Every structure is written in C-alpha cells, then in structure tokens.
C-alpha cells in the first residue's frame, strides 16, 4: 500500500481521494450511531475496565460495527479503544496504515444521561492522521477534515461550513477546556488559584472538545494525556481549521515522544495561532 500524497486542492472537496474516502466514512458514522449507539442511550449499564475507565454495551457494539465496515472503505487494520491492550499496542507499533476508532467518547456522560458524547474515526499513516471525522449524534453535527484539504462542519440541516481561523482574543477572555484536571500537577494548582482565562470548563468528551475549538465555541484546551482515539480525528480537524497544538513538552505534536512513547499525548491547543502562543507560554511556565 503506497502512502497517499494529498496536495491542498483549490476546493476542500475537490480532491477525488477526499470524496472517495470521506463520503462513505461519514455515512458509516451516521448509520452506526443510529443503529448501534442511540438505541442504547439511557438503556445500558456501565462497568469498569481493567484500567478503571467506564465501558458499556454501546461502546462494544459501535466498535464492532466500525471494525467490520471500515476496511471496506480503506483496507488496513483497525485500532479500537475496546480492544485488548496488547493488540492495541501491536497495531500501533507495526501498522503503517491504521484506522483509529473511538466508538463512544464521553461514556460517563452517556451513562448519566448527559447529551455530550461522540463517535470518532481517523485514518492514520505512520501514527499521523490524514483523515478524521467526528459525529455528535445529539446535535446531529458532523466534523471532518483531510490533511491539506481543510476542515468542515455539517450541521443538523445538512449545511456544510468550512471552518476557518476566527479572530483571536486575549487569554484573559478565553474559554478553556481542561482534561484529566487532577493529573495536571502545578498547572492544576495555577488554574485553580489564579486562572488566566475568563472561564474554565471540563465537558468530558475529548473528541468533541477538539471540534468545538475548531468551530470557535471553545478557545483553548489543555489535557494531561490522551490515548490515540481521543485525539486522532479531533487534532487534525483543529489543525486543518487553522488552530495549533503542542504537547506539554514538545512543539511538534504529531511527532512528539511524550507520555508512554508516542502512544499517549498531552495537549496544549488553541483555535488561533496568537492565542496558542500566549496559552502555551502560560501553561509551560507553570509546569
């Protein structure tokens, strides 16, 4: 299988590989949400996995459907959140091409009846995303991006909007999402005692947090460490919308060796380059 070369087209949907890949992947996300996810909403019990995180029958059903269908769209292995850890690590290490799947991000919200969760799929080449899509079944919003092709949001009315860099704002006026707050150490203390921002929120679904930065609903983000399925689609969508990201320690987000090698990544991100520079400086000064 040869690596894809995707030049930036005149129009984001003008490249044949984009339409060939994006359309069936997006249709699959919508179909799986309708048949496997939402019928189980408020109807399934949660249980704890080996690592203490929450899982439900819905997570497993959605992942099984995606694992079965995605290779028919682009034939390569699938890495899913609910797979055994040794299988996950083997695929991450050995596969050049990889589908990376989060069948239900925000499982805690899902089990408590909070309508803030999503499904994410990304196609990665050598652990860097080239295509990503995130579906919010409650808002009926679909975010997707192709490397070099821009980012797009399709709203509940089926209207597509290409996401662009919005005007910047100072950090003092920003709304900031925080993930794994208790693991941020000195950054947590600084945020709690003298926050530099207008508002700090924690919504509990990384795949949507990335996308909401891309469309300007949230301004910046910090996370102590995400698994590949948490960031694979969303980070690409933000990047293609003109946002910027780094890890807590490294500026090259995709190629960083940060937490557990290249597997888990911390994140500093913002929707505008100027805000990103200010936010990154603040975070790193409090590490």
Structural commentary:
With 287 residues, this protein is of the alpha+beta class. It has two domains: 16-163, Fructose-1,6-Bisphosphatase, Chain A, domain 1 (2-Layer Sandwich); 171-285, D-Maltodextrin-Binding Protein, domain 2. The chain has helices at 16-37, 57-73, 85-94, 107-111, 186-194, 206-214, 228-240, 273-285; strands spanning 47-48, 54-55, 78-80, 97-105, 118-125, 128-136, 141-146, 151-154, 160-163, 175-179, 199-201, 220-226, 244-246, 265-270. The strands form three sheets. Strands 3-4-5-6-7-8-9 form a seven-stranded mixed beta sheet, with helices on both faces. A five-stranded mixed beta sheet has the order 11-10-12-14-13, with helices on both faces. Strands 1-2 form a two-stranded antiparallel sheet. Strand 1 and strand 2 form a beta hairpin. Helix 1 packs antiparallel against helix 2 (57-73) and helix 6 (206-214) packs parallel to helix 7 (228-240). The protein is globular, with a radius of gyration of 18 Å. The N and C termini lie far apart (42 Å).
């Amino acid at each position: 299988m040869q690596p894809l070369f995707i030049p930036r087209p005149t129009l984001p949907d003008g490249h044949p590989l984009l339409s060939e890949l994006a359309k069936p992947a997006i249709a699959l996300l919508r179909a799986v949400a309708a048949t496997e996810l939402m019928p189980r909403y408020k109807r399934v019990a949660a249980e704890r996995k080996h690592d203490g995180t929450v899982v439900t029958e819905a997570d497993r059903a959605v992942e099984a459907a995606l694992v079965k269908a995605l290779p028919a769209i682009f034939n390569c292995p699938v890495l899913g959140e609910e797979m055994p850890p040794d299988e996950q690590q083997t695929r991450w290490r050995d596969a050049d091409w990889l589908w990376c799947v989060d069948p239900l991000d925000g499982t805690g919200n899902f089990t408590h009846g909070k309508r803030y969760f999503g499904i994410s799929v990304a196609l990665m080449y050598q652990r860097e995303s080239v295509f990503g899509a995130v579906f919010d079944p409650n808002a009926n919003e679909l975010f997707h991006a192709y490397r070099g092709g821009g980012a797009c949001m399709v709203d509940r009315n089926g209207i597509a909007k290409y996401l662009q860099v919005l005007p910047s704002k100072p950090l003092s006026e920003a709304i900031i999402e925080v993930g794994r707050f208790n693991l941020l150490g000195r950054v947590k203390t600084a945020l709690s005692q003298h926050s530099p921002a207008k508002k700090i929120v924690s919504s509990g679904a990384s795949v949507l947090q990335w996308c909401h930065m891309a469309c300007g609903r949230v301004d910046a983000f910090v996370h102590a460490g995400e698994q590949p399925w948490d960031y694979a689609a969303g980070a690409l969508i933000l990047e293609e919308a003109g946002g910027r990201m780094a890890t807590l320690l490294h500026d090259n987000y995709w190629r960083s060796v940060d937490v557990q090698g290249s597997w888990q990544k911390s994140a500093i991100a913002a929707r505008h380059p100027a805000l990103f520079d200010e936010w990154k400086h603040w975070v790193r000064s409090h590490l």
